[in-house]
Amino acid sequence: AALIFQSLGLIEDAKRIIEDLVYLYDDDDELKIMYAEILLDLDLEDEALDILLAIKEESENRVQALLLMADLYQVQGLDEVAEQKLFEAKRLLPNEPVVDFALGEFYFSKYDYKKAIPYYEKLANQEIEVNGVNKDLRLAECLSAEGEWEDAITFYEKGIEQSKDFHTLLGYGITLFQAERYSACIPVFEEAIFFDPEYLVVHLWLSKAFDLEGQYQEGYDILQKALLVDETNVECLLSAAKLARKLKNVD
Fold first, then answer.
1. What integer pLDDT is reported at residue 23 of this predicted model?
2. Do 18 and 34 touch, CB atoms closer than 8 A?
């Protein structure tokens, strides 16, 4: 019943049921984990932490408690403590994919892509999905941020088969561009524009790709479409002027 209430967003009702169960079955750590999750949903962080800290190291639920504590400490801005909890979880279960994923996500959220890469790489060949996150796209983004364009492209190609959105297409397109695959990035940028025609940065990347492919008219035309969205955008105006000059359109 508590899980049903929680899934329906009736968190207070779920809390009342679970706290009674925790009182009756004080040695059930799985119930404590559920109770802590509900308390976190209610922003009762101190109470949730007290519950989690009470779960002993020898408990089979200890790693789950550590992962929740890491999330909690990170939200509070205590990154070093959060990292310590993740390392403790890694020590207890060194080959657990969920722990590797949690470490990857921790460093990814801190834009520390170099540290995140090894943890995502461990998951690359494993059939695992955590919280609906596409691990291949995570790895691709990290590799791209570190300038490892060709490796990033491989994982973008894998990940994009499972899920595709504006952010992914933009990242994939930029990675192809940086790898000097200009003809390949053009349809990717075009699809990204279809997802969000008002995000003018994509028009600029696409126009650069057309320019480098010698397709000056196509590059000019896409910038004209961008200027219909924002006729005062300086970067679009300058880029359009440069392409107009290449087209010998002096006016």
1. 63
2. yes
In degrees rounded to 5, what are phi and psi of residue 133?
Answer: -85, 135
Q: Which has the higher per-residue pLDDT, 144 or 134?
A: 144
Predicted local distance difference test score (pLDDT) of residue 162: 86
Q: Which residue has the higher pLDDT, 1 or 237?
A: 237
Question: DSSP code of 59?
Answer: S
- Single pTM value for the model: 0.83
Spatial contact of 185 and 215, defined as CB atoms under 8 Å apart = no
**Alpha-carbon span 12 to 224, nearest angstrom:** 54
Q: What is the distance between the alpha carbons of residues 62 and 66, in angstroms, rounded to a whole number?
A: 6
Task: Pinpoint the alpha helices (H) of 25-148.
Answer: 29-41, 45-53, 62-75, 79-92, 97-109, 113-123, 135-145
